[in-house]
Amino acid sequence: MKKILIVSGHPDLENSTANRIIIENLSKKLPEATIHRLDKIIENGNFNIEKEQTLLLEYDTYIFVSPFYWYSWSALMKKWVDEVFTHGFAHGSTGKKVQGKNILLSFTTGAPFEEYKHEGSMRHTVEEFLYPVEGLAHLCGMNALPTVYSNDMTFIPTVHDDNRLKEIQKKAEKHANRIVELVK
Length: 184
Known about the structure:
Shape: globular
InterPro entries: Flavodoxin_fold, Flavoprotein-like_sf, KefG/KefF
Helix content: 25-40%
CATH architecture: 3-Layer(aba) Sandwich
Pfam families: Flavodoxin_2
Number of strands: 6
Oligomer: single chain
Organism: Fusobacterium simiae
Keywords: Oxidoreductase
Protein name: NAD(P)H-dependent oxidoreductase
Structural class: alpha/beta
Mean pLDDT: 95
CATH topology: Rossmann fold
């Protein structure tokens, strides 16, 4: 059986709608998986790098779940990757300790799909924005599973109604189901 680590890069998961629901669904559908919340383990702006690297070695499949902020993953997830996936550990001639591990990237965007086209307001597709993020798998010798993303996932309680909440909940559950199918 695969040992799965789900890394949540949302900076405030309790106040998230889509990412919180995705994590909750993954927890139910992959009860053997470990949920690793970066918003709960960062202390004074720092990660315990040795502890994080040791944790990664215990698993063979990683699922990185993050909102899509400024055309990439969250700053929290970026900081964690920058600090944990170091030369000599994750890549380089003396590294690649995560080589052969599976990685799946999961994103939620606030904007609708139509905005992520060359003629849309974002001027690029989500896939095009993800080239640098997906490069992590290649550099570290990991097996990149297909990226899962869902668009138009914004819910603002003071702006949206219960119908919008139900719509986001359904989309988040479908998103989680797609992840589960890819890692089982």
